[in-house]
Amino acid sequence: METMLFWLIFFTLGWTVIDGSETEKDFMWHLRKIPRVVSERTFRLTSPNFEADARMVLNRVCGIECQKELPAPSLSDLEDSLSYETVFENGTRTLTRVKVQGWVLEPTQNLTTQGAPVRRKRQVYGTDSRFSILDKRFLTNFPFNTAVKLSTGCSGILISPNHVLTAAHCVHDGQDYIKGSKRLRVGLLKMRKKGGGKKRRGSRRSRRDASGGDESEVTKENLKERANARRRRKESARGQRGADGKPSFQWTRVKNTHIPKGWARGGQGDAALDYDYALLELKRPHRKKYMELGISPTIKKLPGGMIHFSGFDHDRPDQLVYRFCSVSDESNDLLYQYCDAESGSTGSGVYLRLKEPDKKSWKRKIIAVYSGHQWVDVHGVQKDYNVAVRITPLKYAQICLWMHGDDANCTSG
Q: Which of 122, 169, 199, 229 measures 20 to 30 Å from 275, CA to CA?
């Protein structure tokens, strides 16, 4: 069974479907000129209360037909939505106003409602098609090693040595920052070595005995060393606690958090879900392979119409869960799909594997952030979908600005 799962995931992660009407060129990362999102002015805000309860589902979402009827946002509306809050580790907060330069109005996507039947409110549809990644050959290697867990219960994805992309609602409910986000931590998967803890404790005792030291005599330096060791063990043991040879988490504090004003302006307006993404800057860089951002292509440019993402679903504790599915519908900012997922996986990075221009290699990039289960209006009928927020050129430029502090590295993507 384990061997069958190995090959199933191997081929699923690497496949590309090309029929008679499609060429290899249709499934290529097309570099696009990115509009400039530049910082204009930063204001200091009062510190947040950090009192909101985590909320995974909005009360109402403007649906597919509703989005088609909405007027195109003006430049000033976009600049207001792309302005952003930054919350620092010490609890202080700022608001940065931005200006958008070189932006061209994008046409509304041709939406392709498939007439899916109304479903009961659940996030696993029919047969559960998720895969629990248990084999360390996958778990600790790319692309699964890019999945991380937040101390607030969500998932995220590594996009640089210092940054994690996740959903905004994982730290902010649209009105205030949620409880627990003040001391936010990110958990990176690692494998425990069998018997490592016991050997380390034994070796310390052996060293003390060999040096002829008296265990009853404890210096201040030893006390400090032991306290630091206990603190590190507690940090590593938070959240998922793996047995010997099993996966566990190495927890890292978050230095600051960026959230677009389109989400953090009180949750008012139908466009709030379009901005359900956030960037976390880690206090210490990691050494794992990360996944780069990419501009979200249309459904027709998705290999086989499929998307992929991995996260830490609550109904499968202590497991990384991978899934893939086809996209049913799209708008300019959202992907509507029926990927099986449960709470805990929200904030996961949705990715594709496309061919690099002028190269023989293929590359995975993040093209959306999984936001979760939502009810939407389609032709006046309430239907439920699992929704992902697309990385548009403007969002790509904004996230790039958050990562680099300027737009020098954000000219194309």
A: 122
Distance CA 359, CA 198 (A): 49
pTM tops 0.85: no
Segment among 93-102, 124-133, 135-144, 333-342 with least mean pLDDT: 124-133
**Tokens 């805000």 sit at which residue?**
45
Q: Please, what CATH class does the domain formed by 31-103+130-191+246-404 belong to?
A: mainly beta
Nearest alpha-carbon partner for 276 in 167, 173, 174: 167
End-to-end CA distance of the chain: 40
Q: Where exactly are the structural domains of the chain?
A: 31-103+130-191+246-404
Q: What is the DSSP string of 142-162?
A: TTGGGEEEETTS-EEEE-SSS
Q: What contacts 175, CB < 8 A, 6 or more positions away?
A: 52, 266, 267
Residue 365's φ and ψ, nearest 5 degrees, are -140, 150
pLDDT at 301: 84
- pLDDT tens digits, 277-304: 999 999 999 989 999 999 999 888 888 8
Q: What pLDDT does residue 189 have?
A: 85
Q: How far is CA 42 from the centre of its chain?
A: 26
413, 101 contact by CB (below 8 A)? no
Span 153-171, pLDDT tens digits? 999 999 999 999 999 999 9
Amino acid identity for residue 260 in this structure: P
Cα atoms in the 13 Å half-sphere on the side-chain side of 60: 7
